[in-house]
Amino acid sequence: MDCISARSKNIKGKGQSKLKRRESLAGLLFVSPTIIYFIVFFLLPLAVCIYASFTNWNILSPNRVFVGTLNYERLFVDPKFWKALKNTLFMLIPIPIYITFALLFAYACHKNILGQKVFRAIYYLPYISSIVALTLIWMWLFNSKYGLVNNFLSLFVDNPPSWLSDPFWTKWMIVIMISWKLIGFTSIYYIAALKSIPKSYYEAAQIDGAGPRQQFFKITLPLLTPTTFYLLVIGMIGSLQTFVEVQMFAPDGGRGYGVGTIVFYIWQKAFSSSQMGYACAIATVFGLFILVITVIQFTLSRKWVFEGN
Amino acid sequence: MKRKISPVRIIVFIILLIGAVTMIVPFAWMLSTSLKEANLVYTIPPQWIPKPVDWKNYIEIWTASNLLTGIKNSCIISVSVLVFCTFTSSMAAFAFSKLSFPFKNAIFVMLLTTIMVPLVVLLVPLFVIYTKIGWIDTLLPMIVPASMCNINIIFFLRQYMTGLPKELLDAAKIDGCGYFSAYWRIYLPLCKPAIVANVIMLFMITWNDYFGPLVFTHSESKQNIQVAIAMLNSHYIQQTDIPLMMTASLIAILPVLILFIICQKYFTESFAMTGIKG
Lengths: 309, 278
What we know:
The structure holds 2 protein chains of 2 kinds.
Chain A (H helix, E strand, L loop, with lengths): L1 H51 L17 H7 L2 H12 L3 H17 L5 H13 L2 H11 L6 H6 L13 H29 L3 H9 L4 H28 L4 H6 L12 H10 L4 H29 L5
Helix pairs in contact in A: 4-8, 5-8, 8-10, 10-13, 12-13
Chain B lengths: L6 H28 L21 H9 L2 H32 L5 H13 L2 H14 L7 H9 L2 H12 L4 H8 L4 H12 L1 H16 L3 H6 L8 H6 L11 H21 L1 H14 L1
Helix pairs in contact in B: 1-13, 2-13, 3-6, 3-7, 3-10, 8-9, 10-14
């Protein structure tokens, strides 16, 4: 008996390990495109970027010389880099604007305001539209002489700004555009999050005598913090990479480089000046910068994001 | 739920209405301008309903710009990416959610890191790699990497498939189904709503892509629609034909807009589902 059961166990074990191997093989095979993608289109370029940042690489000449940290030293005294960084940080301004409006909009929808379905369809419209088409429309809207915006503004002020030639106003124009574009999209996250808050919380609060305002600030807002945190993280990563608007509104980076962002500067350096080594150095620093900001956000999140149970 | 009418609600409604008008005005202005004769554009105050309505721009645009080639290339790119990426990503999602294989978690975490690195870091090296293998000025840089996987779709479908019972796989195995046919015949059909939502999102992203085609293509015959309409930008050409520019924008927006109107339910669903993931 013992012998037989031992043997059957053995057979079972062998069979199972064979099955297991088949499963492992299938699994690896199924994710193999993903692994190839990761190695060829992510890891390899990433390594090349870091390596190239230590060379004087240039697409036109084949000889590549190792220059040590020269590119990095150059970067710290490059006034255009610092200007680009300042302009890039300017692009963070839309985040609190669209998050606030999106939250209010989502709250109104959640409270079942009249016509909310139509409102939602309309508010999502900018997000699905191509950014290039939007910039073309925007240029026409903000045309300093014949644009709709300045026509409207001239009812109130004497000299409406020349949006497209003054870097300061161009940047504000981009801020308005990004905020406008993302309100609807952002509200979707809040609408989903609001739906997931249990009604019993509000009922309990009502019994304890909390008014609508107190309910909003003491229940709704804290329970939405995970969503807000997520939106802040993806919003920052996205905003810091602003490129298309700059390239369309100010193809040369604007007067005194007042509009150009970091991504735009890297693109210019690599493909117009063909200083690829230097472009890679800026890209590496910029990648690290985004990483550090994200890590800081995660660290700070413990202080204000509600974790629940 | 009964709607109560209170002063607060009326104020909120008015604010939302103003917001909605702000959302729509640029699009309405685009439509209105696209129906104008070139000289009618510069009237003050602006004319909302053009007199006469001029459809000429919608004929002229096809010869005045590279739009037709752009649409053709965008279609080639979008269709290839949609077909291959949906297949590869859903297969990977199936493996991540239902199979056990070595380094599974390590590979998954590895994929997470790709989201943290901005595209611009990879851009210059990719350009050089593509130059070496002769991919510059072809559609391949837009098609091949995007076809191999889409991290967001993998996350999304993995989440979705985790909710499906694993017993289906065991039953399939007993019936002599291989892993591939278990994925293809059982799990993939069950994921249909999620797949549709993702296909729409993917189409939107691929159709609206501008950065990649801008960097990796040069000749007019390889431009996608976004690059083609960007060329109408007044900064690049001497004479600005604003009505023509608006016509091109409208045509570029239209495919996604139509899809959005038809599948609005799926759109919001997919947004919401990806939102829950975070």
